[in-house]
Write a structure and sequence with these properties.
The chain has 401 residues and is mainly alpha-helical. Among the domains are: 66 residues, no CATH class; 59 residues, Alpha-Beta Complex (Nucleotide Excision Repair Protein XPA (XPA-MBD), B Chain A), CATH 3.90.530; 42 residues. It is built from ten helices and eight strands. A hairpin with a 5-residue loop joins strand 6 and strand 7. The protein starts with 23 loop residues before the first helix and ends with a strand. One of its GO terms (molecular function) is damaged DNA binding. Keywords: DNA damage, DNA repair, DNA-binding, Metal-binding, Nucleus, Zinc, Zinc-finger. This is DNA repair protein RAD14. InterPro entries: DNA-bd_dom_put_sf (IPR009061), XPA/RAD14 (IPR000465), XPA_C (IPR022656), XPA_CS (IPR022658), XPA_sf (IPR037129).
Length: 401
Amino acid sequence: MERQSTPPTQATSELRRPPSPPTPEVTRRIEESRLRAKAIRGQREAEQRSAGVPPEPRTASGFIATDDIQLGGPAGRKRPYTSISRSEIPTTNRDARSAPSKDDGGAGANDLRPISRKFSKYVDYNFSAMTDTKGGFLSTEDDPWNKSMSTGPGSGAPGSEQKPAHMTAAEWERMQLIRKLQRNKAGPFEPGLSDLADEKSRKRCRECRTVEIDFVWEEVFGCAVCNSCKEKYPEKYSLLTKTECKEDYLLTDPELRDEELLPHLSKPNPHKSHWHDMMLFLRYQVEDYAFNHKWGSPEALDAEFEKREANKKRRKEAKFREKLLDLKRKTRTEAFRRNNAKAGSAAAGPAGSGGKAAKFGDAVGGGGKHVHEWGRTVENAEGLTVKTCLTCGMEVEELEL
């Protein structure tokens, strides 16, 4: 039995080459033929219109409606769905479009077997009404007791406005943008300059007397100043943060929160977007209140600052000393007692109390070597740091590091 094999390929004498592009002469002839045919068709259509014969409907490419080419309306429109869909649906097909008939042997909609369980329920989610909880998109139907997903007026973080339920996400973003422009008086909400305004009621810069002032500063701080003067005089019109006001001018939180006393400009925090907004204060207003109302003068402010720094340093040193004494009580005293106990036990032998001369520091009465019980370290009248033995009253000077 011969083994089957694949027949060899037919050898070609010449390799197939890709067709060469048409020459310019051939391209010119094709274009001339196309334009000539188009002119003839236009002439025939003009003759038909002059004779009162309506022209046949054509596509944008010039095709006439035939059995294979169907026009679904004006030229250029796609075919209708009915032209490509099946008009006769088989009775065995489980399609909702096929109504049960009486001629199918009594089989109706109730006789059909139920569809798969995983397709028995279909949930249509409205993502515009959902909240991104950083762990998935949830709605109030999923967790009705979660206040952060509620769109009512009392929901969300305090002081933050939530999107109304009847408004889409695009409309809500547009409204937020409009409110931001209104708050910053920018874009179409920027106040215009009119020559018809009264000269007395017109607001001018307090430095250069120009009318092109910053209306945001005029509304927030009540200060009419232009942008050029703000950059020219930073010692008066620079902005201070809340921390700088508390550290440099020794102001308190209640004073900085009082908008009638010190107005402030709120801006988003540049470090973290979810932190509280920055409170920016105008330098000359802060200095005027600190120098003229609270402390009286810059010298009094400097004196108060030095006094607080001295108190802070004194408290810091006292705390350090207290910790150092506690450390001495826990380590040095115990170690000293253990060393003295070892030395006393080594010196006291079988004849510890007889025949040996008494040494300095031994207990009177032959009771063994005296062990000092040092008290707390104190400062004497000369300013030296000394400690006294509670038993014999001996004083030694101790150097603190």
